[in-house]
Amino acid sequence: MEHGSIHESHASTFSLADEDHTLANSVRFALNQDPRVSFCGYSIPHPSDAKVNIRVQTTGDPANEVFKDALQDLMVMCQHVRSTFEKAVVDHKTTSESFENMSIDSK
């Protein structure tokens, strides 16, 4: 849900339900990488609420567009981490199999 003003499209607060610090901090990081963002921060209204508020202020571009772009950038980062991890697992299994086939007896 977006909380903002029609007259001030460069500043909005986005509420994400059923989320916590994990996603909020990642989104904040992605937003702070964007040069169009002048301020970004998040808060959790109450520890028992599974809700996060993310405040975005931009240099002039609509905040909702910048927010969407940051989420897309975060998805690309996650896909990169996942593919790198999966490649490392395959490499490790390949290396482990070659070590298992080695003989340590010198007869």
UniProtKB/TrEMBL annotation:
GO cellular component: RNA polymerase I complex; RNA polymerase III complex
Key words, A-Z: DNA-directed RNA polymerase, Nucleus, Transcription
Keyword Cytoplasm: no
Domain spans labelled DNA-directed RNA polymerase RBP11-like dimerisation: 12-83
GO-annotated biological processes: transcription by RNA polymerase III; transcription elongation by RNA polymerase I
InterPro entries named in the record: RBP11-like, RBP11-like_dimer, RNA_pol_Rpb11_13-16kDa_CS, RNAP_AC19, Rpo11-like
SUPFAM superfamilies tied to this protein: RBP11-like subunits of RNA polymerase
Protein location: Nucleus
Pfam family, one: RNA_pol_L_2
The keyword Nucleus belongs to this UniProt entry's keyword annotation: yes
Recorded GO MF terms: DNA binding; DNA-directed RNA polymerase activity; protein dimerization activity
Domain of life: Eukaryota
Family, per entry: Belongs to the archaeal Rpo11/eukaryotic RPB11/RPC19 RNA polymerase subunit family.
Name this polypeptide is given: DNA-directed RNA polymerases I and III subunit RPAC2
Classification of source organism: Eukaryota, Viridiplantae, Streptophyta, Embryophyta, Tracheophyta
